[in-house]
Specification:
The protein is 59% helix and 0% strand. The protein is built from five helices and no strands. The longest helix has 28 residues, at 33-60.
Amino acid sequence: MAEEQPTRRSLLVGLLAGAALLPGCSPDHPASPDHATRLVNTAVRREQALLARCHATADRHPDLAHRLAPLVSDHEDHLAALGHPVGGTGGASATAAGTPASTGASPSPTPPPVPASPDAATAAVADAERRAASSTLDGLEGAPGQLARLLASVAAAESSHHALLTTAPVS
């Protein structure tokens, strides 16, 4: 009998429920502005790296571009929500999380080499998405509530990207 994959909805619900239980979401654990800024800058760098990986993979394997397009769109949306829109300055504006945006994140990270086979390249993107989701959730402790919710949502999307890439594409 084939092992059943978790649904996208169950992944999202699980991640959001877990994030809501984090101590950082409590008003009893105030976060410093420096901590919030570090979290935003780390999330921005992570999103930029995922976006660069998706673009590099689509460039090397054009047949994967249609499969990666929704991920690219999500990562661009995440960057905008974090106050660093793609092509924007990300300077002194406030982020959706209510923390000042910083220019501490590099605008265009160099992606790692893309594997030669499309299957290996897809697996590499999926693995990067899984690691990003895990890292994002690991860093939420002490985050202000609104930022914690935003980052938990980003992690949920990254987790769903992993699930989408590790299941057979629908024809």
